Amino acid sequence: MSSIKNMKRHYLSSLKALEFSVFQEEHKNGVYPNWMRRYFESLTEGEQWDYFLAYRNVADQMVSESYLVDHLKWILKYPTIELEYNIYAKAVFDPDFYESDVFRPGKWDKLQEKYAARLHQEEEEINLAEERRRATLAFSPKKPEDTLPF
């Protein structure tokens, strides 16, 4: 029984390696936009694997990769990339987003279950930080004009 499991595991890892090779070649051959190619080439091979796995995880949930590619340009500009969460957050704030046009049936619901509370919490933290910043600016003492050096 364990030899069958080992064969299956080997087959799946070989399949993933093949998919990764194809993903690399697609970047080299210009299948993806230049900015994706530059990003991918800037990564170490280990980082490329992580990116590939995250990309495939999200792409497999979608009807088409076009929404992912269109929004990926902005996601990849940030140092920390949690692709699944980031694409979810982008979609939530995208006024032109229609879940049935982008995600396969049931996938959007799973993303909402997984990330809605986190996004709400982060949004509250951002709003609170902005309120504090505004309050600090509103109550900061200003120098009287007659103390200016000129």
Mean pLDDT: 87
Rg, please?
22 Å
For the termini, the CA-CA separation is 87 Å
Provide the low-confidence segments as ranges: none
What can be said about the biggest beta sheet?
Answer: none
Textual characterization of the structure:
This protein has 150 residues and is mainly alpha-helical. It has seven helices and no strands. Helix 4 packs across helix 5 and helix 5 (83-93) packs across helix 7.
Topology, element by element:
Layout: H1 2-28, H2 34-41, H3 45-59, H4 66-75, H5 83-93, H6 99-102, H7 107-139
Helix pairs in contact: 4-5, 5-7
Question: Quick gist of this model?
Answer:
This protein is mostly helical and 150 residues long.
Which features does this protein show?
single chain; 150 residues; mainly alpha; 7 helices; 72% helix
